[in-house]
Amino acid sequence: MQKRLILLLWGSLLALAACASPEPTAETVDTAVCDPTPTDGHLFTSEAGGYCLIYPQTYCWLPGQDALSHTFVSMDPVEETTNRCTDDPLILHGEVVWLQVRVSPAGGQPLAELIAGYRANEAVFGLEFADVVLDGVTAVQINNLPGQAISRVLFAVHDDQFYELTFQPAAADRLYAQVLATFRFLP
Q1: Where are the beta strands (DSSP E) in the chain?
Q2: What CATH superfamily classification does 22-185 receive?
Q3: CB of 129 closer than 8 Å to CB of 111
Q4: For the segment 107-119, what is each residue's pLDDT rounded down to a tens digit?
Q5: In the chain, domain spans
Q6: Is residue 19 classed exposed, middle or buried when 0-12, 13-18 and 19+ CB atoms within 10 A define those classes?
Q7: Taking the model in full, what pTM does it have?
Q8: Phi-psi region for residue 96, left (φ > 0), alpha (ψ -120 to 50) or beta?
């Protein structure tokens, strides 16, 4: 019985490992593409999402439901090798600063069309728009985006992929500056 249970658990672990999204790796990144500056941080690469960035040393990584959604949180990691966050809901950990990066197909649409709904509600919600440069690509930044907390969001289109970077709270200036300086689109 005990042997059978061990085999069942082992098989379950192998199945979970096969389904898990790939862990971020520094080995697969050409440092000329994803410049490791500032060096005080963790290099994260999403080959599926077509980007890399460096997030702060004191943050952990929380994989999303798919390979195109990742979150970086101002908490200590529970897994030192991958800097993985706990699976507990973030709400249980008090106030945290976080960045969520989501990538989806742009479907040939330009950035202006993809964010038209936000522009239509600019006055209603008091949204503030600004153009910023994200790795040489003009992106649109929206400040004061309402939600669970006030957010700052960057939207960009690169190689027909729509990038959405959400910083929460909106006053996460150090995280924002580091990500803006280190974010790179992969060739």
Answers
A1: 41-46, 51-56, 60-63, 69-73, 98-105, 128-134, 137-145, 151-158, 161-168, 184-185
A2: Mog1/PsbP, alpha/beta/alpha sandwich (3.40.1000.10)
A3: no
A4: 999 999 999 999 9
A5: 22-185
A6: exposed
A7: 0.76
A8: beta
